[in-house]
Structures are given as C-alpha cells and as structure tokens.
Specification:
This protein is of the alpha+beta class. It contains 5 helices and 11 strands, in the order ααβαααββββββββββ. The protein has helices spanning about 65-70, 75-95, 115-140, 145-165, 185-190, and strands spanning about 105, 195, 210-215, 240-245, 255, 260, 270-275, 280-285, 290-295, 315-325, 340-350.
Length: about 350
C-alpha cells in the first residue's frame, strides 16, 4: 500500500559529525542514550532524517467516498499538491546532507485507517507530530544555516496540518501556540510504520518509548461535519474529562529489521504529562493497575489574565505521555523529560 501522507519528521541536528555506535537492545536501565553534539542539549542524532511518502488516495478510496466526506475535486488536487511539496522538502534535505543523506524508506500503514474520514484524521495527526518534532529540535541545531532552510519547510508543513484539520471538519486552530516535541517522541510515533529502509541508511539513535493508548479518545470523527474552512466545534473535550490509559511494557521490537526496541528508564507511573501549546502540564494518575490508569484532562488556560477567550491549556491535536515525575520543563529543554517517560506519547485530539 502506498502511504497516504507525508510525514514531516526531521530527526537531525549535528549535520556534519559521525554517529557513534550504539547498541539499541538494552538489557539494563541506564539513562536514555543520546548522541553527542547540539546546542544546549545532551544529544541530537547526526544524520538528518526526512520520512517522505506519497499520497496515493485515488488507489485507496473512490471519488464517491471523498465526495461524501466533503472533499471534492479541488480539495483532492490540493492533497496532490501537498505531496509535491514534500518532494521539494526531501530534495532540500538531501542537498543539505549530500552523500550522507538517507534514502527513502518503505512504510506500511495497514490498520491505521479504514475509510476517508479516518485517513484524513491520520494525516492531520501525522503532520502534527511531524511539525512538533521539528519545533523541538530546530533551535538546538549546530548548523544555523540549515535551521533557516528547515524553518522554511516546516512552516509549509504547518499549513498542511491545518488543512487536514479542516478536511476533518474540525475548527482549524483552536489554540494560540503550536507545541514542540523531543525528537525521541516523534521517532516513537513514526517508527512503527517503517517496514524497511535501504542498506546503509543511518541508524536512529533516539530511543523508542513503549506505546501508549487512550481507550476513550475524544470523538473527533463525526459524519455530521464534513470538510469545511471552519466550524463552530472549537473543542471536543472539557477540562476534567476522565481519560483512561493502557500502555505496553518496554522491550518490544518495533520498526524495521528488528533493530529497534522500546525502552524506558523511568520509575513507577505517577503522572500524565500533557504537551500542548506552551506548557507541559501534569495531572496525577489514579486507578493505577499494572499497565493501566486514569487521569483528568487538565484545568487552566494559557494566560489567566487575558480575558474570557483565552484557550484551555489542552486543545487542538496535543500529546500526552505517562511519566514518573512532575518536573518543570519549558519547550526548549523538554527533551530532559525523556528519562522520566514510562510510555507514550499518544496523540490526543482535544479539539
């Protein structure tokens, strides 16, 4: 199956150094391994990776199915054009890296979606974690020249994400700020869809966390809401909503060639860490039973003194992980949370 959307994930930082040799099959629990280099960070992976795939929706779904979701011929052409944009982005990155550039991998999205609406939701999630992953490392790049070029590509990706949100019939941007993710979080979300990569492609050094799932996700897909420029659904959830989690144990083989395994250096699960807008907000877990627990969606707004219209802390397509500590972090140093991640992240569509 050809992939439905282009993943905007650049997992790179030190563009010119060689990667150290790291064994990913850990049997002990040292701090999470990271390569050297980067600006004010404990590590960034040397090869810049761009996960690029093709839109081939015409071979997956019929025109009638797209029309029933409100996605007409003009909108389908826009999807095609976004795929062409991704070719340009991949070309840019290949030019930056030269001979060390990774070759395109094969992806398998079987089970990720079953109809047009689910396909659109998957695309808006994928582009969200792609852009968030870039925001997380962009200011840590040793190569500031390359960072400028990557910024120009990721601003295009941001527009793609909003378009898929509109195609899902959601409010296009129910937030004031886009979140940023550590590279390991973005890699954890992408890795399960990699089926194979050409020999010689760089090995990704960032860790893969155990998978996290929410068993009562917000109802983002709604047949009453077709693709639209905007709707009045500015939120799908409310603060205080009960959220139920289940997660996997570490040690599972993920991604291609059996060369990556999930790993956690964290202690016992205690909190849910919500990454949305500018904040990392913690809520305590309760009903903890093995690999399951519950929490409440956070209260609060971004800026308390800006009137009644300030958005809730968690809104839009956000991220949540299970952690062992409620340590304070800012977007710039959020990668320090990795040693405390039990499982996750999960892509949570709050609005």
């Amino acid at each position: 199956m050809l992939a439905p959307a282009a993943a905007a994930l650049v997992l790179g930082a030190t563009l010119s150094s060689a990667a150290p040799s790291v064994d990913r099959r850990w049997n002990t629990k040292p701090p999470a391994p990271v390569p050297s280099g980067g600006i004010l960070t404990n590590g960034t992976v040397p090869p810049t990776y761009r996960a690029v795939s093709e839109f081939d929706f015409q071979s997956i779904f019929s025109v009638q199915e797209f029309e029933e979701a409100g996605i007409g011929a003009s909108e389908r052409y826009l999807i095609q054009f976004m795929a062409e944009q991704e070719v340009g982005h991949a070309t840019l990155l290949s030019n930056i890296l030269g001979p060390s550039a990774a070759k395109q991998c094969k992806y398998n999205y079987d089970g990720a979606f079953g109809n047009v609406r689910e396909w659109v939701e998957f695309c808006q999630k994928l582009t969200r974690w792609g852009e968030a992953g870039v925001y997380g490392f962009l200011e840590h790049l040793d190569s500031r020249d390359s960072a400028t070029l990557l910024l120009q590509s990721i601003t295009t990706e941001t527009r793609q994400q909003m378009i898929f949100t509109q195609f899902e019939g959601l409010f296009p941007m129910p937030f004031w700020f886009n979140p940023a993710l550590p590279q390991a979080w973005a890699w954890t979300l992408l890795a399960p869809y990699l089926e194979s990569c050409p020999p010689g492609n760089p090995h990704i050094i960032f860790q893969n966390f155990p998978a996290l799932n929410v068993t009562n996700p917000p109802p983002a897909i709604n047949a009453q809401y077709n693709a639209a420029i905007s709707t009045n659904r500015t939120a799908l959830t409310k603060p205080g909503r009960k959220v139920n989690f289940v997660w996997e144990d570490p040690g599972k083989t993920v991604s291609y060639d059996d060369s990556y395994r999930t790993y956690s250096a964290a202690g016992k699960p205690k909190f849910a860490a919500w990454v949305s807008q500018l904040n990392t907000t913690y809520t305590p877990l309760y009903n903890i039973n093995g690999n399951s627990a519950s929490t409440k969606q956070p209260e609060g707004v971004v800026f308390p003194n800006t009137g009644d219209n300030t958005p809730h802390i968690v809104n839009g397509t956000s991220f949540v992980a299970i952690v062992d500590s409620d340590t304070y972090y800012t977007p710039f140093n959020l990668s320090l949370i990795n040693d405390h991640v039990v499982a996750g992240p999960y892509v949570y569509i709050a609005g």
